[in-house]
Specification:
This protein is about 25% helix and about 25% strand. With about 325 residues, the chain is α/β, with parallel strands linked by helices. The strands form three sheets. The chain has a seven-stranded mixed β-sheet with strand order 7-8-9-10-11-18-19, covered by helices on one side. Strand 8 and strand 9 form a beta hairpin. The C terminus is likely disordered.
């Protein structure tokens, strides 16, 4: 086995490195910069070069080795290359080759269009390790353009009612994708501090995004024409009081599940996820040509059973985190 599951996560014995370790290790290879995959404290990190500004924002002065997508790196005789995962800026699948055997660790990934990151690339392999955050047949995403049209129409309707629009999405990845789909001709766009810091990291990486203003520094007293991007952790905090009368919207794949909007206490839900839906999950696994599939993050039992019914060797592996749900818990505290 090229990889094995240890106390600190996925470990490659031949290369002596971890992939997305759960704690501090001598050498880590990271799939992306979300806090459930990029844990602070390791001695050195191998990361995809397009995401370097985001990794810097998340990991500070840690030792980073940025490499271009597709470039081969030799670690103790194991060939490693990083390939686009389409999840967020700098997200990568980790391809590992040793003695003719190829494994690919997907990290989190999506196949939907997203102008803020490099599109997913299918990487053929013998063993594929896939997430299954939304690994149920009920999860099927509409085209992103349709969701952005819904969001912009919601913004306009709030303006007509004299209400500010507060749009909630994870500070890293989701917020920037939402920003890319907003129509800046509708009105001014403001950001929570946690979002603005990472929007700037995207700009530093060369990603073109509409103009934004930092909400806490704004002098306006009329927010009725504005939309404000904020992390879900800002919901229900004193930070929101400055906006007066406002409506809240939440962008998440979980909005596909009936009753989620009510449980999350938001006025509007938008089904937009940075993970694969059920059809794309199955299509991707088939496209890799993998003979063996390890399934993690989410509905592992359902996906494993489906794969086994197709005569594919499949196994569920444990994780300390659960994909999109965990990121909400690991965001920075909202500003006051």
């Amino acid at each position: 086995m090229l990889l094995e599951l240890r106390d600190l996560g996925l470990y490659c014995p031949a290369g002596d490195f971890y992939i997305d370790p759960w704690g501090a290790v001598p050498r880590a290879v990271l799939t992306h910069a979300h806090a459930d995959h990029a844990r602070f404290g390791s001695h050195a990190y191998l990361v995809a070069q397009p995401g370097e500004p985001v990794f810097r924002a998340r990991l500070g002065d840690s030792v980073l080795q940025p490499v271009s997508y597709g470039a081969r790196v030799d670690i103790n005789g194991v060939q490693i290359s990083l390939h686009p995962a389409g999840h967020l800026l700098g997200s990568a699948q980790v391809r590992i080759e040793h003695r003719g055997e190829v494994w690919v660790v997907s990290g989190d990934y999506k196949r939907a269009s997203d102008s803020t990151c490099t599109p997913f690339e299918v990487v053929p392999c013998h063993t594929f390790i896939t997430e299954s955050t939304f690994g149920l047949p009920i999860f099927r995403w509409a085209p992103s353009e349709e969701v952005f049209a819904q969001i912009n129409n919601w913004w306009r309707s709030n303006q007509a009612a004299g209400r500010a629009s507060v749009l909630l999405g994870y500070a890293l990845g989701k917020a920037q994708r939402l920003l890319s789909g907003l129509d800046p001709t509708i009105g001014p766009i403001y950001t929570h501090g946690a979002v603005e810091r990472l929007v700037q990291a995207y700009r530093d990486a060369g990603v073109a995004l509409p103009e934004t203003s930092y909400a806490a520094a704004a002098t306006t007293h009329d927010w009725s024409q504005a939309i404000i991007l904020a992390p879900p952790s800002a919901q229900g905090t004193p930070w929101l009081r400055r906006f007066g009368d406002y409506a809240t919207g939440l962008a998440s794949g979980w909005m596909q599940v009936r009753g989620t909007r009510r449980r999350r206490a938001v006025d509007r839900g938008f089904v937009l996820s940075d993970h694969v839906d059920w059809p794309d999950l199955l299509d991707t696994i088939a496209a890799t040509g993998a003979e063996r599939v390890w399934v993690t993050h989410g509905y592992t039992a359902v996906v494993v059973r489906w794969l086994q019914e197709q005569s594919i060797e499949a196994l569920a592996i444990q994780t300390r985190f659960e994909g999109e749900q965990s990121e909400a818990e690991l965001e920075p505290e909202p500003e006051s």
